[in-house]
């Protein structure tokens, strides 16, 4: 519809607006959590298109997760309408798939190449390396080591087996396009012309391959071989690269798998012409949460001296609740009761205040609450407490969609059925497989207790993906292949979200429970593993990321006794808790979550 002039930048503060209005040349936005980095970059893209005449098809935005890509696309859609569809919003891996599909021959792949699932990778690696143990080591190294590191013979054999089956793995999705563009400057130049406007969110977590790929997509090779045919150079001299990177060094949490915050920190050295914008106002969280998070990160901050202020009229912001439970089951029970209480369960009605509301009108819903943990094994106790208490939840699983046998069956059947609207084919495929099972004649019965129900739930899992891809079966299969994280988290569902700290990056929730604040989990260490200061600094950043997901209420909990690795430990409290001043926290206990004691007024803060 018609828009007021500059309407697209109305929702930004002056610093954010300055960043969004920066049009030509490199831009770096370096700012803390909740300061509106993602919001700013979204508005910037919309502004470029709607008000600066940039073609939407020339815009490429790279996000860290598919969920973030979808959110960005949705926000652009709200700002721009139809034009948003032309913008490419993708993860690095999605970008890799796209380039490889367009250039499969050059990359030595068949037109129908596929991304190997975890089971296939393990099988091929085992064949190459001789034992499952060696195979796991090979795959782990392959997922973390620099892309130009010399391959060992086992790794080379594994790659040969992959290729023989016309398969690539996740690492290939980054490495092969990078090699392709590095070897063919004309091709790199063509991609640079196609996407003249690049934005990269969460840039603090790029690794060397992603960095190399971005360089190829933005800058000419040093010898000038990659300069544009029209004579413009993309190199250091007269840097015209329209690349905007956004990030926060203190949220760099993927060093363990090869990401290097150094790339972010040297952006201005790579691009001396870069404009740098810092944002200092946190719009997300209550002041207590912002202050406590700043204290928690201080001992390891990569941006010392940074000031983060909360905005908003927070009179008497609530303190952070700290809960100490007897064991992991008691901790989970505390979370379940607190959820019930926050949502106005019976116990809350006798309180005269302390009600938490969602940001919009209305009370809090289950969907406004997240439980964050360091290791996915911690989810088990929470899930069983939620099941007993009747708390609905959704879990973001890191299992690949295709690793579920029923999903793989449905996908194979879909492929079998050929082109058509995907959605119709999907239900047809599910019904066909169910009928086959019910007849009992199928050999592929699997070991599910109720194969038909399992197949139908697989169909339901796949349905949103079908919906998203329309009639494009290839896109559907590509999306399925990329489903490294199921991203089953529906932001609109009225369910509590359970997710790992790593997966929580970039997200926000009115209420956050960060469980397992214990030595060994935060910072994480395997049993017997020595302390490692660099690893601990990254763990502290992870703790910081977790704390800063909370908008209104944050609870930090720990257990005095916890079962881990098949034995029971008595872990000390996380050292990360020590950095938070006592004035910002208050103890809360499980009883207070169910019983109200009027004289105990601080319990209202729960
Ligand atoms: P993170 O580092 O965690 O990714 P971020 O810097 O990307 O955080 P956003 O997610 O963009 O932060 O914004 C945080 C919250 O603050 C969002 O709910 C966003 O809508 C809100 N916000 C940001 N800027 C403004 C603003 N100028 N006015 C009102 N709300 C804002
Ligand atoms: Mg963000």
TrEMBL record:
Annotated residues for binding of ATP: 31-38
NADP found in the keyword field: no
Domain UvrD-like helicase ATP-binding: 10-286
GO molecular function terms listed in the Swiss-Prot or TrEMBL record: 3'-5' DNA helicase activity; ATP binding; ATP hydrolysis activity; DNA binding
A GO CC annotation given for this chain: cytosol
Any Gene Ontology biological process: recombinational repair
UniProt entry tagged with the keyword Ribosomal protein: no
Region annotated Disordered, chain positions: 587-606
UvrD-like helicase C-terminal domain ranges (all copies): 287-606
EC assignment: 5.6.2.4
UniProt keywords, alphabetically: ATP-binding, Helicase, Hydrolase, Isomerase, Nucleotide-binding
Reactions listed under catalytic activity: Couples ATP hydrolysis with the unwinding of duplex DNA by translocating in the 3'-5' direction; ATP + H2O = ADP + phosphate + H(+)
Protein name per UniProt: DNA 3'-5' helicase
Source lineage: Bacteria, Bacillati, Actinomycetota, Actinomycetes, Streptosporangiales
Shown segment, full-protein numbering: 527 to 1132 of 1132
